[in-house]
Write a structure and sequence with these properties.
Layout (H helix, E strand, L loop, with lengths): L2 H6 L11 H6 L4 E4 L11 E2 L16 H6 L2 E4 L5 E9 L20 H4 L3 H11 L4 E16 L7 H9 L2 H9 L2 E18 L4 H7 L3 E4 L2 E4 L15 E8 L4 E9 L4 H17 L1 H12 L6 E2 L1 H10 L2 E8 L4 H8 L5
Antiparallel strand pairs: 1-12, 2-6, 3-5, 3-11, 4-5, 5-6, 6-9, 6-12, 7-8, 9-10
Helix pairs in contact: 6-7
Amino acid sequence: MTAQVDLQYIAVEEVSQASVVRCTTSRLPLVLPWHPKQTIKLGTLFHSRRPDDPWAKNSPFDTRSLLSTPKVLSRDDGTDSSFKSLSTTRTSETHDHLSLGLTLGVGLPFLAEVSVTGTYDKDVLENKDACKTSIRSAVRAGSVGFARQPRLTTEAIITLKYDGGLSAFQARYGDYYVAGYKLGGDTALMISGSNASKKELEKFGITVKVEVLFIEASTTHTKDFATSSASSSLRLVGYDTLDYQSWKAAEVEGHSPEASTLRAQAAEVITRSQALDIRVTEKLDELGIRDGDHLDSDNCTKLIESGLVAELVLLPVSTLREVIEWVIEDDVI
């Protein structure tokens, strides 16, 4: 099975609440929320035990092979859209409001402050309000991955064969490598209140209805906001990965002038959520790439810079065909 096929069959939901340590122990894929501020090329190695500085400086892949191996855009599964709307009244239910993507980014220093998803999840986890209302949307519109696995360098093979085996290989190069990108976008909005009732927050948090796997905001959402009691305070956090934008409003009194700003921010996130699938498709069209296209390094960089790379898919180096062969191979190089 090629790396490209592997990407299409990764079940994201199966590891959505798993920690990095749990994933690596079980040799599960790592799917990390990503952002347009840093370009990570396919084939880059990753040290899962170095959360502060995980990206490897050395590569076990032959440079010529890495460059010449086709990177293929696949949209065989079409566009997949998800939407969740939730209201809770207990602080113990805070985790239910985390982003729809993998929560592996929560607590990782290299993601927490640069990924709008990571920032949102951090704010949600730190929120102590009992009453919360959130809406979260995600669109996935394909993936980019290797058509075949790139070849290892002679040095990497020698490490596997004579110089410490797999453990030495992982210590030198990393235990995971970037096998692909998941294309798409995510939006989320959470409004919370320390003294507001659940009913008030449900109205303030916008009435939504689900239609054919996606959302349509109620036409009355801009005028159906409820005004909380004068003693209650409201907070808002939100993000949009496609435009790398985040929103945060804290301690807004229900009757204060700032409440109108909060309502406007909430309406903006909802509007972006409604059009998320269209926006993703338009960005793909702008880049002029189609299903089955072979992409070069520049194309991949443009994808990241456009905000279309919603997630990085990392696979264990122990699953590389050449690694498996040389760990068990008896022949002399």
